[in-house]
Design brief:
two-stranded antiparallel sheet; mainly alpha; disulfide bond; about 35% helix; Peroxidase; hydrogen peroxide; about 325 residues; Peroxidase_pln; secreted; 12 helices
Length: about 325
């Protein structure tokens, strides 16, 4: 059986009290959506994850990328599995945009025609986080798969590695998520890897916002000017195989490789900076809010009822 892999309340400050937008009451999704039609779906997905994690590297270290795959899916056409569509000779798809080239997605044969690929991806993302010692949350289900996977749209909408904090916030707001969600969900970078091309300009231009010791460490694996797109570095240079709050600590120490991570801690948005500080000091709070933001993320642009389809093969439309 194939596994999809390679592929992300109140917060109190001394002078802030922030609440998430309430989107739970009108959600068309439900935790027990497959209780009668495919009650074993979550057990099967978990069993396959365990099998993969029991394998030796490099297969098991690619598993955190599933979370990235889930994030890339929601940003274009919502959470509908459109990022899984394989491009053909005569038709491009989201997977052909440069930021998605390293992602992979295999068919996952669980109750064919009943369980959607987008739900499988959501369940697996939650399992991956919990496997790496992160928080657990009840995954809502009931999504249907989309009928569109557009390369141009993906290139236009996907965040770029050099975007400002203002641009990132606007992008999240455009899909109904907040600055709190942005900073919280960015914490998924505590596991997984990023390719050299995504931070090359920072190390070769001697970006002073990146700690010198980190630059010297990664530059050996990302030789200039010929950068291998297949070479990657851990997003969290301290605990890359553990889902914890060390990512936020490393940002405060200027160890974040991606400029879009660095601006969370040192950009012009005060709320973002305060959230980075608070999460770096309180892992329990980060876990609590990450779980809430993942539920919100899983509701973005979902298709339900008679919309879309339930794919028989996650890599192609029916």
């Amino acid at each position: 059986m194939g596994l999809l892999f390679m592929i992300i309340a109140f917060v109190f400050f001394s002078n802030y009290s922030l609440s998430f937008a309430n989107s739970s009451s009108s959600s068309p999704l439900s935790v027990g959506f497959y209780d009668k039609s495919c009650p074993q779906v979550e057990d099967v997905i978990h069993e396959e994850l365990v099998k993969k994690m029991s394998q030796r590297p490099p297969l098991n270290i690619t598993i955190p990328g599933t979370l990235r795959l889930f994030f890339h899916d929601y940003y274009v056409q919502g959470c509908d599995g459109s990022v899984l569509i394989t491009p053909t000779e005569d038709k491009d798809s989201e997977r052909n945009t440069p930021i998605n080239l390293s992602l992979a997605g295999d068919a996952f044969d669980i109750c064919p025609g009943v369980v959607s690929c987008s739900d499988i991806l959501a369940i697996l993302a939650g399992d991956v986080v919990h496997w790496w010692k992160g928080p657990h949350w009840e995954v809502e289900k009931g999504r249907r798969d989309g009928l569109v996977s557009n390369l141009t749209e993906a290139e236009l909408l996907m965040p770029k590695s050099n975007e400002s904090i203002t641009s990132l916030i606007r992008g999240f707001e455009s899909i109904g998520l907040s600055t709190v969600d942005l900073v919280t969900l960015s914490g998924a970078h505590t596991i997984g890897f990023t390719h050299c091309i995504e931070f090359a300009s920072r190390i070769f231009q001697k970006d002073t916002t990146l700690k010198v010791a980190v630059r010297e460490k990664v530059i050996s694996s990302c030789p200039f000017p010929k950068i291998d797109r297949n070479v990657a570095e851990a997003l969290d240079q301290d605990t890359e195989f553990l889902f914890d709050n060390k990512f936020y600590k490393s940002l405060r120490q200027r160890k974040g490789l991606l400029l879009t991570d660095n601006v969370l801690a040192f950009g012009e948005d005060e709320l973002s900076r305060k959230l980075v500080y608070r999460y770096s000091e309180d892992q329990a709070l980060f876990f609590q809010e990450f779980a809430k933001s993942m539920v919100k993320l899983g509701r973005v642009g979902v298709k339900t009822g008679k919309e879309g389809e339930i794919r028989r093969d996650c890599r192609k439309f029916n």
